[in-house]
Amino acid sequence: MKNFNKNKTERVEVMALFGYEMTPCQPLTFRRRGQNETEVTELLRTQIHFAGQATLHIFDVLVGREKMRLEFNSSDLSWYLTQ
To answer: Can you tell me the distance from the alpha carbon of 54 to that of 77, in angstroms, rounded to the nearest whole number?
Structure first.
């Protein structure tokens, strides 16, 4: 059976602004392994999910014209990119 889930998740480094106006955190740029920094064009939506002791902060963003999702895990302070 063919896998139709085309989402890829990878760990990234993120430069974010914390405590900005009504948004407590706003990702500004991210860097994939072995690549240059990529600028976030626009923050579309934020969500928070609670999973046990961890809190997952989800940011739907635009990079150019491409929609992406950045996720911040509060328990291990890691960022992931989902396309």
So the answer is: 10
* Cβ-Cβ contacts under 8 Å for 6 (sequence gap 6 or more): none
Alpha-carbon distance of 76 to 66, in angstroms, equals 27
Residue 22 CA to residue 28 CA, distance in Å, equals 16
* Cα gap 18→24, rounded to integer Å: 5
Model pTM?
0.84
Is 66 buried (19+), middle (13-18) or exposed (0-12) by CB count in 10 A?
exposed
State the number of CA atoms in the 13 A half-sphere of 26 facing the CB: 14
pLDDT in tens, 22-42: 778 899 999 999 999 999 999
